[in-house]
Specification:
Aspartate Aminotransferase, domain 2, alpha/beta, 42% helix, binds pyridoxal-5'-phosphate, 396 residues
Length: 396
């Protein structure tokens, strides 16, 4: 268990603690913008979820507006929609990339007031079609998972009226929390700035507590504590906390310590993405499972390979491979398993997104992160190939 390989790369060492705390000695710059290379100056926010909340508020939609959102999504996005005073309307996804289905969006678009286009797992939406279908209605790009992903050489998050990024640990930059909003429209930008300034500024005590909490959580999410303790704690948390109470949205302005770490890590982003793309290529070349179980990168797209999802054709096969990898000291995850029932119970989901439902039940995420060694990648591929060989002829 000491050597259990985590699914995600959490990074926050003692040098980060020093960097993060030393910035607290300086006066907070209320007007500070965050530069994301290739994107531009962004408004820093406490987290991606607060970014979506602020983006929706800045659009000044009438109360209870219908906001389109893919069902295959982190449910905190649905929570942010509700918190902004609106209602999520669920749109199905494309089986090839987990992003909005153009056909389903076309059939639902006339009833929508705005849309959140999520670039899931770092794969990219068909953004040109989406913008055309929405015909001038606001589109917020959720680039929480797609920092660095490109469509025709342009970064995700820069196509819609607003783009939202996340730097939370578990995402690429693992800064603790932190997020940013990109917006080219000046008057919308003014509203965002005002909404942020109305939020509470974290005091030094909560900044310090946040830095140390991030350090501890990172230790628990990394070897060797992940196998010894971390998995157990996260399992208990997930079992004990109900769907609606998970992932709370704490409002407030961004922690300066998170911003500092984000800026520091951003300089290494391309390096991290290159390594994860190499790792993904290794799987694409060495896994002997059918090619339609992967998300392949279409021409003119550049995936950051934040996650490496595998699409199984049954829940049983998916769970079998997950268990097999776990027995061999490799963590995997099956994300958002409670979204179907949770959205039905709490967000009026009409059970009309069959592809997303199937993917939610049959997707396995295997580690692809930049901290993996070649021997670990090879081990994961060998075990998965052997497992697949033994189950591929199971009846469906
Ligand atoms: C697709 C997506 N959007 C938004 C968020 C919210 O970002 P954050 O965790 O920084 O609040 C997340 C992650 O939780 C996410 O995965």
């Amino acid at each position: 268990m000491l050597s259990l390989i985590p699914t995600e790369a959490w990074e926050y060492n003692l040098v980060d603690v020093i960097t993060a705390t030393s910035i607290l000695l300086k006066k907070r710059d209320e007007n500070k913008l965050l530069q994301i290379n290739g994107v531009g100056k962004c408004y820093p926010v406490r987290s991606g979820r607060v970014g979506i909340l602020i983006a929706l508020k800045a659009l000044s939609l009438r109360p209870f507006s219908k906001i389109g959102v893919p069902l295959y999504c982190c449910p905190v996005v649905f929570k942010a929609i509700k918190m902004a005073g609106h209602m999520p309307v669920f749109v199905d996804v494309d089986k090839d990339n987990y992003c909005l289905s153009i056909d389903d969006l076309s059939s639902k678009a006339s009833a929508l007031d705005a849309l959140i286009a999520v670039h899931m797992f770092g794969q990219t939406c068909n953004i040109y079609d989406i913008l055309q279908i929405m015909r001038g209605k606001p589109v917020i790009e959720d680039a929480a998972q797609s920092l660095g992903s490109l469509i025709n050489g342009k970064l995700t998050g820069t196509f819609g009226q607003l783009g939202v990024f996340s730097f939370r640990s578990g995402k690429y930059l693992t800064s603790g929390e932190g997020g940013a909003i990109f917006c080219q429209d000046e008057s919308l930008g003014q509203k965002i700035s005002t909404l942020i300034k109305e939020m509470e500024i974290p005091d030094i005590k909560s900044e310090l507590a946040h830095v140390f909490e991030t350090y501890l959580r990172t230790k628990l999410r990394s070897k060797p504590l992940w196998g010894l303790l971390g998995t157990k704690i996260w399992k208990i948390y997930n079992r004990k906390i109900s769907f609606i109470d998970k992932s709370p949205i704490f409002s407030g302005q961004a922690y300066t310590s998170d911003l500092k770490i984000t800026e520091k890590r951003m300089t290494r982003l391309n390096q991290m993405i290159n390594k994860q793309r190499e790792n993904a290529d290794f799987y694409l070349n060495n896994l002997t499972i059918p090619k339609d179980m992967f998300c392949l990168e279409p021409p003119n797209r550049y995936y950051n390979r934040f996650m490496f999802p595998i699409k199984f054709n049954s829940e049983e096969r998916c769970q079998y491979i997950s268990d097999l990898l776990q027995e061999n000291n490799i963590s995997t995850s099956r994300p958002y398993l409670d979204v179907i029932e949770g959205s039905y119970m709490h967000y009026n989901y009409q059970r009309n997104c069959p592809v997303a439902e199937r993917l939610l039940k049959t997707t396995l995420i295997i580690p692809v992160h930049y901290r993996l060694h070649q021997s670990e990648l090879a081990k994961i591929a060998d075990i998965l190939n052997a497992g697949w060989k033994s189950i591929s002829n199971w009846g469906n």
